[in-house]
Amino acid sequence: MDFDDTPQEAEFRQVVRDWILANAPDDLLQQFCEAEAARDAGEGAATMLRVSRIWQRRKAEAGWACLAWPVEFGGRGATPIQRVIFDQEEGAYGRLSWLFRVGHHIAGPTLAAFASDAQRRALLPAIASGEKVWCQLFSEPASGSDLAGLRTRAVRDGEDWVVNGQKIWTTVGHIADYGLLLARTDATRPKHKGLTMFFIDMKSEGVEVRPIKDASDTYEFNEVYFTDVRIPDAQRLGEINEGWNVSLTTLMNERLSIGARLMTGVPELLDFAMACEMEDGTLAIDDPQVRSKLATWVTRANGLKYTVYRAVSALSRGERPGPENAIGKIVAASMSQEVAAFALSLQGPMGVVTDGGATGKFAHMLFEAAGKRIAGGTDEIMRNIIAERVLGLPGDIRVDRDVPFNAISSRGR
Ligand SMILES: Cc1cc2nc3c(=O)[nH]c(=O)nc-3n(C[C@H](O)[C@H](O)[C@H](O)COP(=O)(O)OP(=O)(O)OC[C@H]3O[C@@H](n4cnc5c(N)ncnc54)[C@H](O)[C@@H]3O)c2cc1C
Known about the structure:
It is a single chain. The protein is α+β, with helices and mostly antiparallel strands. It has three domains: 125 residues, Orthogonal Bundle (Butyryl-Coa Dehydrogenase, subunit A, domain 1); 109 residues, Butyryl-CoA Dehydrogenase, subunit A, domain 2 (Beta Barrel), CATH 2.40.110; 129 residues, Butyryl-CoA Dehydrogenase, subunit A, domain 3. The protein has twelve helices and eight strands. A hairpin with a 5-residue loop joins strand 6 and strand 7. The chain is globular and about 75 Å long. The N and C termini lie far apart (48 Å). Bound molecules: flavin-adenine dinucleotide (FAD). Flavin-adenine dinucleotide binds next to strand 1 and helix 12. The site of flavin-adenine dinucleotide has 18 residues, from strand 1 and helix 12.
């Protein structure tokens, strides 16, 4: 493919650039970073949500929110390439959309594919504008990589389903209005064939959200408990027991969204190395060891950029995000972890001081990178996907694949 903008794309980029320049949310981003650095689940989380909503609403009113979605669903009807151009120009301000990312990249595309027309019209514009926050209720204490082994049950009762069970690692669950829920609806079938997808109002009776503090002292995750929670059948997405196929759309979109922004840490490291003074008074950028590391990472970051371009051009031909997007996620996450660790070693003790500004940036990146290597599929699972579905190598051994779920031993789980 040709990597330069076409004349139409260049024109579009200029329109985006002008709008971002005229509306740059520097003050909001500053408030967001300060609130994030304060690390508290109450006031801090409320501030992060408030300032994020201001930027998201501003974008929605000007037609820049979820721009590849149809206009009637709150988007702009733009092409995938135009969406990428907007993301590139939005740059660091994109952090202000972080709290909405499950809605934008996971729940939104799933609703667009499987919800009724009335539900799409009611739910999607509120996702695009940031009015409603969504979370993803998939992982459980004994089923993360082995997602199809989940145990939360949904039992049919008239026009409703009654849900009991527990989810964990639910990002933004503590501020979410809705959740995308994968539950077991038939335990007599093999594990992939007895699951159903629903969406759920997080304020429903019987839903209990318990925040978890993570290693970086931040509240991002939650445990979510369901006790006799009733979900109307109208909130089922896809056919009964077909939830695994619905979740594949969701997971591919998730992996594309995680890989697509490609936070490698390389531009940040370059800026830092050009400003960092070493003990002998020289700049880090002039040190041969630093230069050698930088050269390796810049080369790898460029390889990644073109891999993503390839995925984007497939999208623009109307193809669905495929397993090759696993490559972007696996490389970007591990590279940002290496880059952050190296930058911290140059910074010394000051590197761990957090004040919401430049200091602490690499410490934050280091924690975040570790999470990225797990979220949406661990490195090992990504490698399995690449091996089996891109390279055509023999499959992982799955002894319980065709066994009824209720006949699989649960000892040790
Ligand atoms: C930052 C972050 C955000 C998250 N947000 C959400 C969210 O919003 N909603 C949600 O539902 N979940 C979320 N998760 C959970 C995430 O999806 C799971 O943590 C992930 O799928 C791994 O599952 P697990 O933690 O149970 O680890 P396990 O599956 O128990 O894996 C443990 C180890 O075994 C390895 N392993 C497992 N199976 C295989 C295999 N077949 N071959 C080779 N190695 C294997 C894994 O790679 C890993 O190293 C989030 C996680 C993180 C870190």
